[in-house]
Design goal:
Elements lengths: L1 H18 L7 E4 L7 H20 L4 H14 L4 E6 L2 E6 L9 E6 L7 H16 L4 H12 L7 H19 L3 H21 L9 H21 L3 H5 L9 H12 L3 H28 L17 H16 L7 H22 L1 H23 L3 H11 L2 H13 L4 H27 L5 E4 L29
Parallel strand pairs: 1-5
Antiparallel strand pairs: 2-3, 3-4
Helix pairs in contact: 2-3, 2-5, 3-4, 4-5, 6-7, 6-12, 7-8, 8-11, 10-11, 10-16, 10-17, 11-16, 12-13, 13-14, 13-15, 14-15, 14-17, 16-17
């Protein structure tokens, strides 16, 4: 009996050792390049700044940009210390472990956000740079070509994609046949406005206000007599491209992870956009008064309508943001899963838990899709953030306070938006914490333990492999 007890305990201990987290897996220690001259360090610092600027334009979190630049510098045999905010970054490469010495460079974040096809190309380059030393000239050429990459689809297809985005979001919020006609008409107008506005960089700041004024005026003039709908129903969906849902959620995540400056910067920018849109709605409502409806309001469509809206939202993303066609099935599947998780969890424990559950599912699902389809997780993250629409809720609450003078209802909606954003951010943090991510280390011994075990059996005493160092 004593022998049997001893055998069981040892077997249990072996199983526990095999199951516990192993720091050696996915961690590669690389030798330091002690021959790197100052010219090479300056070139590397400039290159990392250029790469980091594009990563921030791809809506990457500041902490993830820091991690990426650290790993790439390690692959080139040197240390990197970064200070990253959404509007720019400083990078110091070389020097000692205490951070002194080396070469310092800075790059601002300029230009519009990257499209989905550009995000995919950028992430492919990052994966390659994590795996091997890519020549500096080749990296710069690839980044330049990626920034200059033309739209995958024609202007007409891009505007049609914006119409699908508008109809998809509107159908998820309020689905009637007249309302859908209104969404499509207003979406086409804003899509054309954005098409011309993107070609005039000086007009980008005023574009949200102008779009909100025109959308509000058109809704007040024609929604009642023609569509027999409440004009307020039509305000939000056509402005979907301006809604800062991703910025609100990313800002909350940055604050929760200790990146206070980046988080405050993102949240301040998102709030500014909401105020600009609300100002446009206020001006539009002052220009025209709503015309009373002369007919009976249409009956809402069935419970299937929001699910069709999710599909329309996905196809709109593919067209408007020039996503590669091969990601269509994965993107639509991810959006449907997010909607299913959010709806089911909301039915079980309320809307806040639904937002948390949807956020928690997002990181592992995006990672799973990336491994099986080579689709960068950002291509999945960005549309799913919009699906959760905290930006639409925020604009609704601010417009209620400013335009309709409904302080009580607006404050309640605003508080609900804050809670929703916090729940999504917490869920994303929990989901990301469940993942194991590889790291590249420089000048440190590979972690090991004196536990005996045959080489390659996965026990903690095994040496780490260089395979998969590219992440």
């Amino acid at each position: 009996m004593r022998l049997l007890y001893r055998f069981d305990v040892r077997g249990l201990a072996r199983r526990a050792a095999a199951l516990r987290p192993r720091r050696s897996i996915g961690t590669v220690t690389l030798p330091e390049d002690e021959t790197a001259g100052r010219e090479r360090l300056r070139d590397l610092a400039s290159l990392l700044c250029e790469l980091g600027s594009d990563l921030l334009r791809a809506a990457e979190r500041s902490s993830e940009v820091d991690r990426t630049l650290h790993d790439i510098a390690t692959r080139y045999g040197t240390r990197a210390r970064c200070f990253v905010v959404p509007t720019g970054l400083f990078v110091r490469v070389g020097g000692g472990p205490d951070g002194r010495g080396g070469e310092l460079d800075f790059a601002p974040v300029e230009g519009p956000d990257l499209r989905l096809d550009q995000v995919e190309s950028l992430q492919a380059l990052v994966t390659r740079m994590r795996a091997e030393e890519v020549p500096f000239d080749e990296v710069r050429r690839t980044l330049r070509e990626n920034r200059e990459r033309p739209d995958r689809f024609s202007p007409a297809a891009t505007v049609f994609g914006y119409v699908l985005l508008t109809v998809g979001l509107g159908t998820m919020r309020h689905a009637t046949v007249p309302a859908i006609a209104g969404y499509a008409t207003l979406g086409a107008g804003v899509g054309l406005l954005r098409l011309f506005g993107d070609r005039l960089p000086a007009a980008r700041t005023a574009l949200p206000v102008v779009a909100a004024i025109l959308v509000t005026a058109a809704a007040l003039r024609w929604a009642g007599p023609l569509l027999h709908e409440n004009p307020a129903v039509l305000y939000i969906p056509p402005l979907i491209a301006f809604l800062p849902g991703a910025a609100l959620t990313l800002g909350a995540i940055e604050l929760a992870t200790g990146a206070a400056l980046s988080g405050i910067s993102r949240l301040a920018g998102a709030v500014t956009v909401l105020l600009l849109l609300s100002l446009g709605i206020l001006v539009g409502s002052e220009l025209l008064r709503p015309h009373p409806s002369g007919g009976k309001a249409a009956e809402p469509l069935g419970a299937w309508a929001p699910w069709v809206g999710v599909l329309l939202l996905g196809f709109g993303f593919l067209l408007y943001f020039s996503a590669p066609p091969r990601v269509t099935g994965w993107l639509l599947g991810a959006l449907l899963v997010e909607r299913l998780v959010q709806s089911t969890a909301s039915e079980l424990a309320g809307a806040t838990f639904g937002a948390f559950a949807a956020g928690a599912v997002l990181p592992p699902m995006a990672s799973w899709i990336e491994k099986r389809s080579r689709t960068p997780d950002q291509v999945v993250f960005l549309p799913c953030f919009w699906l959760l629409v905290p930006g639409a809720v925020g604009l609704t609450s601010v417009s209620e306070i400013i335009v309709e003078k409904d302080t009580d209802g607006g404050l309640n909606s605003l508080i609900g938006m804050v809670i929703t954003v916090a729940a999504i951010a917490l869920g994303v943090l929990v989901g990301a914490g469940l993942q194991r991510r590889p790291r590249l280390l420089l000048g440190e011994p590979a972690p090991s333990t004196p536990e005996p075990g045959p080489a390659g059996d996965g026990l903690p005493g095994a040496e780490p492999s260089r395979e998969g160092a590219g992440g």
